[in-house]
Design goal:
single chain; about 190 residues; mainly alpha; Tetracycline Repressor, domain 2; 10 helices; about 80% helix
């Protein structure tokens, strides 16, 4: 029984996210989600009372890998190798959470109004802190921020560039890793 309930929750979240991306968060009703699922509103309410509850559930499920990454990185030495692994793992998490990020991009105003928007911003700031050194030059801080956003942009905008999907994903990661490597303190005069 618990397995079926978990599947229903996941189906609700998947359908809701599709509708939110298609029609916008504000433009989607619980009734439309129920209709798309071919269930009653009562069945939907059993799992989620509001659209925000659905969205919070989606964020929790899709951002769990990011939370685990932040926790892992906080326990590692602050070496270039660790930072590179942070970017690699974040890239994998981004690819898995692409529907959520598509929603966030297309519904920025709604996300800002919801509690999930703030927690995502906090995660991004923490991730950035893990990549850059506090005493870094401003250009190196920009490189670290740019490495993260290269992964974000690559996840969404590379779909408009011709080429093999795997090749594009590898190229995006390579550029992000290059930016990170350039941002690391170099021995001797610069």
């Amino acid at each position: 029984m618990a397995q079926a309930r978990g599947n229903t929750r996941q189906r609700i979240q998947d359908v809701a996210l599709d509708l939110f991306a298609e029609q916008g968060y504000e433009g989607t009703s619980l009734r439309e989600i129920a209709e798309r699922l071919d269930v009653t509103k009562a069945a939907l309410y059993y799992h989620f009372k509001t659209k925000e509850d659905i969205l919070i559930g989606i964020f929790q499920d899709l951002t769990r890998p990011m939370d685990e990454l932040i926790e892992w990185a906080g326990e590692q030495p602050r070496t270039l190798e660790t930072k590179q692994e942070v970017l690699r793992r974040y890239h994998v998490a981004l690819l898995a959470a692409a529907p959520l990020f598509r929603f966030m991009q297309e519904n920025q105003a709604a996300v800002r109004e919801l509690s999930v928007g703030l927690t995502f911003k906090e995660r991004m700031l923490t991730l950035n802190d893990l990549l850059q050194e506090p005493d870094s030059a401003m250009t190196d801080k920009v490189r670290c921020v740019s490495a993260i956003f290269t992964l974000h942009a690559g996840t969404f905008f590379m779909q408009n560039i011709e080429g093999d999907l795997k090749d594009k994903q590898e190229a995006v990661l390579e550029v992000a890793l290059d930016l990170l490597a350039q941002a690391q303190p170099q021995p001797g005069p610069r």
